[in-house]
Amino acid sequence: MRHPQLPSEGGCRCGAVRLRINAAPIATMACHCKGCQRMTSSAYSLSAMVPAEGFEVVQGEPVRGGLKQGGIHHFLCPDCGTWLFTRLDGMDDLVNLRPTLMDDTTWYAPFMETYTSEKLVFAETGARMSFDTFPDESEFPHILQAYAAAMASA
Questions:
Q1: What residues are paired with 50 via a beta bridge?
Q2: Is 1 among the domain residues?
């Protein structure tokens, strides 16, 4: 597990939307919830939590899609429908990027996994930390500290 070389770029399947990160992720994860399974048509979704000031859309205009209610804002390519990133109300300083969109994915591994209570029986991620649902807000300082320590020792 390591940080990506920065800046790092990526994009959707059709190439209409391109993204760039200029800051290292502060956490990486896999989510096993039913919503993520449906959004990805797979066993789980992958995310890299990136500081918002280190994230930019450099080409194209993502549209809101997926779950269009509450404080979760999923953004997709308007042409091919690729799920690009998610923003959460109250966490304006962070973006959850889909790391498999990056041109170089060799750096990525999920550090934690969430919603293992909804996990498909065969789905394994290799994550170091697991949570039955989404971790409580009070647990995040410990999670981020553990991630930073793991990255420092890599």
A1: 95
A2: no
